[in-house]
Amino acid sequence: MRLKDKTAIITGGASGIGRAAVERFLEEGARVVIADYNQDQGEQLVSELTDHQGRVAFCQTDVSNEAQAKAAVAFTLETFGRIDILVNNAGITRDAMFTKMTEDQFDQVMDINVKGVFHMTHAALPHLIEQGSGKIINTSSVSGVYGNVGQTNYAASKAAVIGMTKSWAKELGRKGIQVNAVAPGFTATPMVEKMPEKIIGQMTSVVSLQRLAKPRDIANAYLFLASDEADYVHGHVLHVDGGIMM
């Protein structure tokens, strides 16, 4: 039980990579709050996790909204009494070639992928500082490292997450708080699986391992960084991309 008696908030935890992370953390003994905008999916997931009742709860949260981020932190403290791990996993895409990208598409991605990470961390930080410990895991992307066609907004947002991660690592390490990021590659989430086979084939072709990541592959990286085994990993961006050749 690598996370026994630890409490985690996982944003975007109702589906995809976030759901896989919720399941892995529960398997390893954690108490988990699923902070997600989709109430139906969140409540359905809690009802399905019958083996973990009493250790998992749902809080409807729009991470781009500062008040809702604060409410999610307050809910977690009220429900489980503490916060040990914050996984800033929530994110969206609004892909378009740059010449056709609208300001609204750009702003939507920035609001969730950047401001959402800011709001959730800012809300949780006073508690983490007071207890003198905590682990913050931010979700970036290989697009934030290498860029990607049609993803000016998404790549910019994920590059910003790396910048925040490294800045917070410099500020918070002395307070006992570890900050790291995970940069997933192409991952077989429900959204990706709906793409045409030709596009999925093109995505797979640039991966050295010749397959897309499973959500559980990314969740395992979160788990490592959240565990005691990663106690001396700090300010790091962990690529989980199957060896993307770019």
From TrEMBL:
GO molecular function, one term: 3-oxoacyl-[acyl-carrier-protein] reductase (NADPH) activity
Listed InterPro entries: KR_dom (IPR057326), NAD(P)-bd_dom_sf (IPR036291), Sc_DH/Rdtase_CS (IPR020904), SDR_fam (IPR002347)
Location of the Ketoreductase domain: 6-185
Its EC number(s): 1.1.1.100
Keyword set includes Oxidoreductase: yes
Alphabetical keyword list: Oxidoreductase
Coiled coil regions, renumbered to chain: none
Gene3D superfamilies referenced in this protein's UniProt entry, alphabetically: NAD(P)-binding Rossmann-like Domain
Family, per entry: Belongs to the short-chain dehydrogenases/reductases (SDR) family.
Name assigned to this protein: 3-oxoacyl-ACP reductase FabG
